[in-house]
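[Automated response] Your request has been received and processed.

Submitted sequence:
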Amino acid sequence: MNTETGMLLMIFICGIVLVIVLFKSKIEFIINMVLRMMMGTVGVYFVNSILLSQGLECGIGINIVTMMTMGTLGLPGFLLLYGMVFYKML
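Generated structure:
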């Protein structure tokens, strides 16, 4: 193996390692966001049910915007949505 072939092989291997690391972090981010969206949706459903049983009709609709808010922000997004609804009730 000459020097040029060895250099190309090293560059190729480094490129593969770099691609694997980049895809791993993106996949982790996507899985984390999807899990937060699912947990937030379940939380909204239960909080809406509790508020409705107490006679308060101030639930949050479950749609893509609310799911993306909770998926991006997590618990602060969940609290933000309910804070906006309660502020609107004042």
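Summary generated for your ticket: The chain is about 85% helix and 0% strand. The mean pLDDT is 86.
If you did not submit this request, please reply to this message.
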